[in-house]
Every structure is written in C-alpha cells, then in structure tokens.
Design brief:
Elements (H helix, E strand, L loop, with lengths): L1 E6 L8 E6 L8 E10 L2 H8 L13 E9 L11 E5 L9 E5 L3 E3 L6 H21 L7 E4 L5 H12 L3 E6 L2 H9 L4 E4 L5 H8 L5 E6 L6 H7 E9 L13 H5 L4 E3 L4 H4 L2 H16 L7 E6 L3 H9 L6 E5 L1
Parallel strand pairs: 8-9, 8-11, 9-10, 11-12, 12-13, 14-15
Antiparallel strand pairs: 1-2, 3-4, 3-6, 3-15, 4-5, 5-7
Helix pairs in contact: 2-3, 2-9, 5-6
Enzyme class: oxidoreductase
InterPro entries: ADH-like_C (IPR013149), ADH-like_N (IPR013154), ER (IPR020843), GroES-like_sf (IPR011032), NAD(P)-bd_dom_sf (IPR036291), QOR-like (IPR047618), Quin_OxRdtase/zeta-crystal_CS (IPR002364)
Organism: Cupriavidus basilensis
C-alpha cells in the first residue's frame, strides 16, 4: 500500500486528504514512478478550488521526479531504474508512487538532483515556451515580468538575462524585489507601493516594453496592456489574482496594434516532438549554470495543506518541493 493526496470535494487546503492507495502495474504506454520529490505550483490551487475542473475524487500535483519502477508495453524511451522527471496532466503527482502516461516523462540528467528536477519541470518548461515561442525574446528587448520572485519569475529572470534582454520585474515587497534583482532583473518595482505602469514608462522613457509576461491576471491585466509599446505582445499565463474578465478586442488596436496570447504548458507536453527539444534546452540551461534552480522551501508531502496556505498567502518565493 502506498500513500497519496486525494480530494473528494473542492475547497480550501483542508479538503486534501492523505490516504492509502493501491498502485498497480502500468498498462500499455504507461510507467510506474516512485517519487523522490514532487513540485508545488499555483495551478495545483486552481484544481483544488475547482477553478480548473476535473472529475472527483481526484489527485493533485502536476510535476515530480523519481525512479522508474516498471514499464508498460509499447514504451521504448524509458527503462526500469531510469532517473526521470515530468510535468503535465493527468494530475496525481502528490503521491509516493504513481502509474502515469509515459509520453510526458523524460530522463533526468545525472547532474540535476531529484529535488531540482521536481522543482524545475513545470516552471522551467513554462519559461522555455514563454521566452522561445509565445514571444521569442531577442537580445536588446526590454520586457516586463510580473511576480519576478515567484517560481517562474526567478527562472525567467535568469533566462532572459542569458538571452540579452533588459528585465523589469514586479514584486510585492522589497525583500522579494531584492531576490528578483539577484536573479537577473535590471529593474524592480514593488507594486504595493508604486504604480508599475508609471514606473515602466519612466524606465523606458515612455516607449514601453516589447512583451509583458503576466501570471497575476485580473489585477494587472489592464495596466500590463498600458506598458506595451506599439505592436507589443501580452502573454497571460496565469491568474493568481483571479481570471481576466471579458474585454473588447478593439482595445488592442486602440493601444497600438497589440498582440495577446494565453498559452498553456499542456498544449506542448502532450507532443513528444515539442517536449523533447524543450526539455533538452531547459536541461542545457541548468547544467551550463546559466539558470540555477534553487529549492527555497521544502515540506513533507503529508503536510501539503500548510504548503498551500503559504503559497496562497504569498509567503513562498521561487520553487518549493514536497517530499514523499
């Protein structure tokens, strides 16, 4: 018998239950993975609260790292004993052991620890598509990065600097702003005490930025549009403050023929022809030292309710792992 987190209803952190589960053998196209570490991400909160729907009862968690215990028929890219990591659906990473689709699982280089692997896959792959596909950052670009001291923020700040961009990051406190600067932000804005729109205009001499990366959503959306230069790109990839309400598309034209996109990692990881080069680029950025993955918080998986409270209370910075 193994242990896992299950929810039988949506709601607050208290709905997560630490229960016994039966873990069988993998079927065709599946593997069984014993987790060494599991990642914590804000998308887990969306599933727990019901903002993102899934049938109940259900598991939670979308990334982890560990060792392959068994391989189902038709799986050619993995073997028993492989060190692996993954990010993507179906949910269920909050578990000691799980059977899962092999297609989203990749081998983890020996130079990257299990904790780093669990902490980097969802946020690191997200960063990869944000900077290389949603808007392809070029040397000399100036970009605005919200939540720069968060998990994606700290990875993206480093990656942006490696690409030769000028990075303006927002954060909720001076402590978080200092952390963002230490990870590559050229300028930081403490949004709780100053207008990020006014500050961006001041920094850019009124020109605006080439792209805004916004995981905050409702509270920052309109201001983010005002930070863009003509033909700039707005990338919305989360809604920590709530979903963006409907708006009139003609606003994009009035503000300078702006572009907007709302990507999701799930579009990418379900296709191995996309996933494998994305993971390879992420691993190369980490093993080369250009992007450092620092696990800043650790919780026992059984104590995940407290981890969620801290995450929602904005008490965490960077990456967090849950230890089975």
């Amino acid at each position: 018998m193994s242990k896992a987190i299950r929810i039988f209803e949506t709601g607050g952190p208290e709905v997560m239950q630490w229960v016994d589960v039966e873990v069988g053998d993998p079927g065709p196209g599946e593997v069984r993975v014993r987790h060494e570490a599991v990642g914590l991400n804000y998308i887990d909160v969306y599933f727990r609260t019901g903002l993102y729907k899934q049938p109940l009862p259900a598991g939670l968690g979308m990334e982890g790292a560990g060792v392959v215990e068994a391989v189902g028929a038709g799986v050619g890219h993995l073997s028993v004993g492989d060190r692996v990591a993954y990010a993507g659906r179906p949910t269920g990473a909050y578990a000691q052991v799980r059977v899962m689709p092999a297609d989203i699982v990749v081998r983890l280089p020996d130079a990257i620890s299990f904790e780093q692997g669990a902490a980097m896959m969802l946020q690191g792959l997200t960063t990869q598509y944000l900077l290389r596909d949603s808007y392809r950052v070029q040397a000399g670009d100036t970009v605005l990065l919200h939540a720069a001291a968060g998990g994606v923020g700290l990875i993206a700040s480093q990656w942006l600097k490696a690409l030769g961009a000028t990075v303006i990051g927002t954060a909720g406190s001076e402590e978080k702003a200092a952390l963002a600067r230490a990870h590559g932000c050229d300028y930081t804005i403490v949004y709780t005490r100053e207008s990020f729109v006014d500050k961006v205009k001041e920094i850019t001499g009124g020109k605006g930025v080439a792209a805004v990366y916004d995981s905050v959503g409702k509270d920052t959306f309109n201001g983010s549009l005002d930070c863009l230069k003509p033909r700039g790109t707005m990338v919305v990839f989360g809604n920590a403050s709530g979903p963006v309400p409907p708006f009139d598309l003609s606003v994009l034209g009035n503000k300078g023929s702006l572009r907007i996109t709302r990507p999701t990692l799930m579009t990418y990881v379900v296709h191995r022809e996309l996933l494998e080069p994305m993971a390879a680029e992420l691993f190369e950025m980490v093993t080369s030292g250009r992007v450092k993955i620092e696990v800043r918080q650790r919780y026992a998986l059984a104590d995940v309710a407290q981890a969620h409270r801290d995450l929602e209370g904005r008490k965490t910075t960077g990456t967090t792992v849950l230890l089975p």
